[in-house]
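[step 3/7] inverse_fold.run input=structure_tokens len=472
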């Protein structure tokens, strides 16, 4: 190594042959780097290097073990791929590497540099700084070490790692059979506006390779890559198969907005009411029976007519009947039994007046809400049944009930439908695939943005656990 020439009239920026550096744009607050003026290009340790994104704006993601000898500390990174070039390493081997541009920070100075990505896992320095990254005012003193301020690996064990991680490009899958649906389109446009790569996958075109070594999901003849997150928009008709696809992603360690078991439980109306009851979430009195001999007792359990009779697999208000009299209830129940359909009988909350409230819960917080008002002559307030959406302000009790209901199913995204009864809010349903259009229009809230903020927060690197020293 040799000293770089100092320009006249300007104080040089001094470096030793090794320095502590940071790459803030990649979420790497502390790395030991070797400054090597004999090398032209800079290199950064990286493994699991994977290109993704559109051809006209390619990106690359990778992982790095920032602390030598600590393979349990992993930081995921992503960046724009500006090139891919042949590089001859110091041992004479030629390598084809991705090139990224990022900010290098040493001491108080920050400047953009080009860096190639290569596996330096066996080397003591996770980064090599070549002469191309050094400005004219930089002087390297090869006989000195750490001329600039010292950093430390302790930062990777601090809570700041989770809160201060920089934005990074995520690869996100949306499981949906309706690529043109409003909610799916909003997820794509909002995600891309935030710099992410969003891919819509038709649930029925996914298939599984199930083995203990490496669970995989395939799509149209190709194995799907690793995703940072999956947003399920699974239709009712493919609930079971969609849940199986989600379980595969879960097995691979991918963050899933709504887990498979939560979706299955919320879609099964009988199970859903049992889950709500177990978590002491208020709901209309509900009963179910199998034998036709129990019809009278079933009605008595719920109370006086009018009553609501629901198919267990109903959705968007279909398969829901209001029986105005006891005799009408008996007739509807008899008809459903004749069709061998599973159903439940539920108390009709008359004072709700054909209205319900939907609270949209994202990440354990109320993201938006709307009141749905039934069309004239209709008791169902679903927007698909002609209802209209209006802005609404939730009461404190309604907020608490909605959050408890979403938590009961462990759903990161849930539409909780509430009735306003004389004795407080009652949960009608917890929807694990709520639509965005009505609630965004009524509330004026950008629901897709709030969801992405939650996803970005959940996939940030977590602080690494400190290794216990022997005998400690």
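[step 3/7] decode complete -> sequence:
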């Amino acid at each position: 190594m040799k000293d770089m020439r100092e320009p006249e009239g300007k104080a040089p920026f001094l470096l030793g042959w090794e320095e502590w550096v940071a790459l803030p744009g990649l979420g790497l607050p502390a790395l030991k780097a070797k400054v090597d003026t004999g090398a032209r290009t800079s290199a950064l340790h990286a493994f699991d290097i994977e290109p993704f994104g559109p051809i006209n704006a390619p990106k690359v993601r990778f992982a790095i073990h920032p602390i030598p000898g600590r393979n349990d500390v992993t930081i995921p990174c992503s960046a724009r791929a500006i090139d891919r070039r042949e590089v001859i390493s110091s041992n004479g081997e030629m390598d084809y590497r991705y090139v990224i541009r990022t900010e290098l920070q040493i001491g108080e100075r920050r400047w953009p540099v080009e860096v190639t990505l290569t596996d330096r896992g066996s080397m003591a320095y996770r980064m090599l700084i070549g002469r191309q990254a050094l400005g004219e005012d930089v002087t390297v003193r090869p006989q000195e070490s750490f001329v600039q301020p010292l950093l430390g690996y302790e930062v990777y064990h601090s809570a700041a790692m989770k809160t201060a991680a920089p934005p990074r490009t995520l690869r996100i899958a949306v499981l949906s059979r309706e690529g043109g649906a409003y909610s799916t389109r909003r997820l794509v446009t909002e995600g891309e506006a935030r710099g992410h790569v969003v891919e819509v996958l038709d649930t029925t075109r996914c298939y599984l390779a199930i083995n203990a070594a490496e669970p995989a999901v395939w799509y149209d003849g190709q194995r799907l890559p690793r995703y940072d997150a999956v947003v399920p928009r699974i239709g009712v008709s493919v609930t079971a198969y969609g849940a199986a696809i989600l379980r595969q992603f879960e097995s691979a360690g991918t963050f899933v907005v709504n887990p498979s078991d939560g979706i299955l439980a919320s879609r099964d109306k009988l199970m859903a009411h049992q889950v709500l009851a177990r978590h002491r979430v208020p709901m209309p009195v509900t009963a179910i029976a199998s034998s036709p001999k129990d019809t009278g007792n079933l009605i008595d359990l719920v109370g006086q007519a009018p009553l609501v009779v629901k198919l267990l697999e109903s959705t968007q208000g279909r398969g829901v009947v209001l029986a105005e009299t006891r005799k009408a209830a008996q007739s509807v129940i008899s008809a459903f039994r004749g069709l061998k359909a599973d159903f439940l009988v539920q108390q009709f909350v008359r004072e709700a007046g054909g209205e319900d409230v939907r609270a949209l819960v994202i990440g354990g917080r109320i993201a938006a809400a709307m009141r749905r008002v039934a069309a004239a002559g209709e008791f169902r307030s679903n927007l698909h049944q002609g209802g209209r959406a209006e802005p609404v302000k939730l009461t404190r009790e309604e907020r608490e009930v909605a959050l408890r209901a979403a938590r009961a199913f462990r759903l990161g995204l849930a539409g909780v439908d509430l009735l306003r009864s004389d004795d407080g809010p009652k949960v009608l349903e917890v929807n694990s695939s709520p639509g965005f259009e009505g609630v965004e229009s009524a509330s004026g809230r950008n629901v897709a943005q709030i969801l992405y903020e939650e996803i970005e927060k959940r996939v940030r690197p977590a602080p690494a656990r400190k290794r216990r020293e022997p005998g400690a």
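[step 4/7] annotate
The chain is about 20% helix and 35% strand.
The longest strand covers residues 75-88.
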